Amino acid sequence: MRNLWIFISRYNAFFLFIIFFFVGIYLTVKNNAYQRSVTLNSSNEIVGTAYERLNVFKRYLNLGMVNDSLAAENAKLKSQLLGLTTVDTAKDVKVVDTVTNQQYTYLAAKVVKNSVTLRNNIMTINKGTDDGIKSGMAVIAPQRGVVGFIRDVSAHLATIQSLLHKDTKISVTLKKNHALGSLVWGDGNFDIKKAFVKEVPNHIKMYVGDTVVTSGYGSFPAGVLVGKISKANVATNDNFLSAELNLFTDFSTLQYVYVVKDKRADEQKALESMAKPNE
């Protein structure tokens, strides 16, 4: 306390100047209309600018919530495009559908980890068994394009075996003639925007610009856009053709994905397991 008084007494002239300065400004503004109006306008401008910047900051903090709501809304719209009546969200409501006989519903999930530079790329999403996620479910991109398959699942998280993985194979078809093929990333390929369609019958003619979509054989619904052919009719040694295509999915910017729930998947697996080998 003694040091404080010494400091104040040493600089008392400065403190008195500050006090008289603000008192003078107050009296000038109070007793003069012009100065009062100028001060009010200036203060309003400063306060308005401060509020504007504060609102920008608040909107930035709320971007995550906005993105979550948009992802859920997009999932709902995708379901409606398929003629469905319900869509899975973070708070799913189980509905027994006997009217539209829906097969697929979409669940929006946020990508919390992603890799694109490895030979076998895996991503992690923030949905798990508590949300009805199971291994083997298909995953698609928000705009268009395939992503991969659900691999391992915990209560609140799941990993996705990306298309950018040497073991990922997806059944696809040419949109114009329904010729079947297999979509793979390809040996020695590290371009995240490129993949290959293989095992296309050699009597099928493919052309640059042809659109490739999912065939519906497997976990993916039929007709999901995959990409466009950039190099066609590459001969192989097994009497089949292959093609190089540019993918629609941009794996480097994925923030949200849609997990495809097929309500007939368990029934189909159970039925197919009854078939005897080599029968």
> How far apart are the first and last residues' alpha carbons, in Å?
97 Å
- Note the overall shape: elongated
Fraction of residues in β-strands: 25-35%
Output the structural class: alpha+beta
List the strand order in the largest sheet.
Answer: 1-2-5-4-3-12
Provide a brief overview of the structure.
The protein is of the alpha+beta class.
Structure commentary:
There is one protein chain. The protein is α+β, with helices and mostly antiparallel strands. The chain is built from five helices and twelve strands. It has helices at residues 2-10, 12-31, 33-61, 63-81, 265-272; strands at 104-114, 122-125, 138-140, 146-153, 158-162, 170-174, 180-184, 194-201, 211-214, 225-235, 240-247, 256-262. The protein has a six-stranded antiparallel barrel. A six-stranded antiparallel β-barrel has the order 6-7-8-11-10-9. The chain is elongated, with a radius of gyration of 31 Å. Mean pLDDT is 79; it is low at 83-100.
Indicate the topology.
Layout (H helix, E strand, L loop, with lengths): L1 H9 L1 H20 L1 H29 L1 H19 L22 E11 L7 E4 L12 E3 L5 E8 L4 E5 L7 E5 L5 E5 L9 E8 L9 E4 L10 E11 L4 E8 L8 E7 L2 H8 L7
Antiparallel strand pairs: 1-2, 1-12, 2-5, 3-4, 3-12, 4-5, 6-7, 6-9, 7-8, 8-11, 9-10, 10-11
Helix pairs in contact: 2-3
